[in-house]
Amino acid sequence: MIPHVGKIVCDPGNAIARETEESLVMMSKRFSEKLYKQMLLKGLNQQRLARLSQVSDSEVSRILGAKSLPGLENAFKLA
User: Fold this and answer.
1) Which residues of 28-59 are buried (b: 16+ CB within 10 A; e: fewer)?
2) pTM of this prediction?
3) Per-residue pLDDT, 9
4) Distance of alpha carbon 24 from alpha carbon 26, whole angstroms
5) Contacts of 16 (CB under 8 A, 6+ apart)
6) Mean per-residue pLDDT for 51-71?
7) Contact 50, 58 (CB under 8 A)
8) Mean of the pLDDT values across residues 38-66?
9) Chain centroid offset of residue 52 CA
10) Distance in angstroms (rounded) separating the CA atoms of residues 16 and 19
11) How does pLDDT run across 9-50, given as a tens digit for each residue?
């Protein structure tokens, strides 16, 4: 039987999933911070960045809010 702690199942697979999720969150935050710094250096706001890079306003918002990482195509467009 697998021991439970609250609603979290304590097994090695779950620990790996949590660690992976935490890594993705950290990568998302780092990308967001770097993108925001570049926007400030270039004098861009979120809407102008979206227009110039041809990435949707909502996607730029999610990226800057560290809610998602851009796909490869959008990462190149934002570079």
Assistant:
1) beebbeebbeebeeeebeeeebbeebebeeeb
2) 0.74
3) 52
4) 5
5) none
6) 95
7) no
8) 96
9) 20
10) 5
11) 555 567 777 778 888 889 999 999 999 999 999 999 999 999
pLDDT at 70 over 90: yes
The separation between the first and the last C-alpha atoms of the chain, rounded to the nearest angstrom, is 49
Is the separation of the CB atoms in 78 and 50 below 8 Å? no
Task: State the number of CA atoms in the 13 A half-sphere of 37 facing the CB.
Answer: 6
Residue type, 34: K
- Helix, strand, or coil (residue 13): helix
Question: In this structure, what token pair is assigned to residue 2?
Answer: 């697998």
Helix (H, G, I), strand (E, B) or coil at 54: coil
Residue 78 CA to residue 18 CA, distance in Å, equals 29
Angle, to 10 degrees, between the axis of helix 12-42 and the axis of helix 57-64? 110
